[in-house]
């Protein structure tokens, strides 16, 4: 399904393949010979999404941009099933395995690999050729790698990245940060009420 969102419509190269049931919403560009497979959602929420050439987005992946951060995927990349990417820059020849997560403002250098259920936190930069092991978390710039059980060490880095402040402009120490966050986010998502369905 292709959707005009905020006056912008998806653009798909004639040589690309977008499977039935995929959602392309807003300022989304799919490059030459790329493949977007069943159940995936690419939604440009104020920014743009660019999928390079010969890149593959596997089933049920969710790709988002924001007004603050575009999402750019380079050439010859694989985005695995059930992956979640938002507002990040992905270099060429990057492999994001099943269930990988890449957050706002992250930069993944060319030739990197994020293995199954790996996470690249917001505002984190992976040097080219970096591997994030299965289930591990990369955080900071330059990135440090943390095993899931290293919560306290991860939090020392992650806290400074300030997820609610960077993504939503909300002070986590305020009186009601979740009230402020959800109200701001709901207003932004409300822009979908004027979307125009363009068909498949």
CATH architecture: 3 Solenoid
* Topology order in helix (H) and strand (E) letters: EEEEEEEEEEEEEEEEEEEEEEEHHHE
Percent strand equals 25-35%
Segments where pLDDT lies below 50 for 5+ residues? Answer: none
CATH topology: UDP N-Acetylglucosamine Acyltransferase, domain 1
Strand order of the largest sheet: 23-22-19-16-13-10-7-4-1-24
CATH class placement: Mainly Beta
Number of helices: 3
How many domains, in number, for the residues?
1
The N- and C-terminal alpha carbons lie at a distance of 4 Å
Helix fraction, binned, reads 10-25%
The average pLDDT score comes to: 95
CA radius of gyration = 17 Å
Shape: globular
Give the full name of the CATH homologous superfamily: Hexapeptide repeat proteins
Structural class: alpha/beta
Would you kindly provide a written description of the structure presented here, covering whatever features stand out?
With 200 residues, this protein is of the alpha/beta class. The chain has one domain (2-151): 3 Solenoid (UDP N-Acetylglucosamine Acyltransferase, domain 1), CATH 2.160.10. Helix content is 15%, strand content 31%. It has three helices and 24 strands. The chain has a ten-stranded mixed beta sheet, covered by helices on one side. A seven-stranded parallel beta sheet has the order 2-5-8-11-14-17-20, with no helix packed on it. The protein has a seven-stranded parallel beta sheet with strand order 3-6-9-12-15-18-21, with no helix packed on it. Strand 22 (137-139) and strand 23 form a beta hairpin. The termini are close together.
